[in-house]
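Take a protein:
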Amino acid sequence: MELRDRLKILDPLRSSASAKAGKSGTDNLADFVPGAERCAEEGCFFRSDSEFPLDHSHGRVRMDALFGIAADVLSLIGRDDSLAEANLRNALFLDTETTGLAGGTGTVPFLIGIGSFTDTHFRIEQFFMRDYDEERAVLAAVRDRLEKAEMLVTYNGKAFDLNLLSTRFTLSRMRLKTAEIPHLDLLFTARRLWKRRLGDCSLSNVERQLLEFERRDDVPGFLIPGLYFEYLRTRDARRLAPVFRHNVWDILALVALAAAAGRIYGNPREALDHPLDWISLGRSLESLCRYGEAADCFRQALDLPLGPDVREEALLRLGFTLKRSGNWEKMVLTWEHLTQQAPHQMRSFEELAKYHEHRSGNLREALAVVERAVMQVELLETLRPGLMLEETRASLNRRLARLKKKLARKRKWNADETD
């Protein structure tokens, strides 16, 4: 069933009764968004609930794919050891729609969506503030949900949504205790895994490119504040239905992206087929000191079609991860290959010379590598007169002089031993 049908969104052009209600100033929200008024001690607000079966797919990813993520993989996704203790089945997926995109004390979250799993469904609760005097009631209801959470999942929630909610709670003289709840912010995960390939890591673009989900008749995020202000002015809710739908899609995308990231970190050979994604995953693992896995990622990228600049980068990263993992034999082969494939890349000569000088003790080989590098610099200066290679040449000459002195001392020592 399409999400449009699931939310039972009505066509405002066919509802003459609702149009008359809007003109008269009577709130007609329930005509366009399934839900009802909820009241508690702090006041009343509007809540809309939606449910999706666990086998529901958002794009090409099913909701229940999330349950296959191991705890150690979850901590890798978020780079947070506390996530290893969390249970995704008990996580809350949070997204807000606000009166502005810049944040600050004047920005109010008028619609707060929270997704969670039940035994049989994925449920989305949307807490809506029909006017500013309902903010406290909305915040109280949201607080009750958040403080029972074992884990939070957001997209830019650490910088925006949670900060904004904290500000609104403070201004309402209420407390929100979420600081100790493990928090997976998928924006950072998306940037680590896909920014190299996609560039734009907005949720809608990542959703479209990776999940293969195309939002039909979606309302752009920058228009949402204006639609809310229009509703406050006219009490006509006919244009709010797409805002609720937009919020639902955002929350479903959180679940699908978390599942996709878990599959990449947990089983990359089955999940990845793009060389830039292999490089991005390799760099992510390298920064976590998981050098063996990172090296495997760079090798996988090198087995796929790559442009010359990207191939050089992959070889460099492979060389450094092999160095850090102490895999000297393969490291030397990588640097040698790079000196042949990209002789203008001076780092490979430098690393090769350092290895022979300080680890293998083969000073003659180290000297030969530096002499090859000096010749390459001279060739580059001839072919590309504009290149600024003075510092590189000076560094090579210092290394060359030091190696010659070491060799001279070694020859003298050998001669003395012979005598």
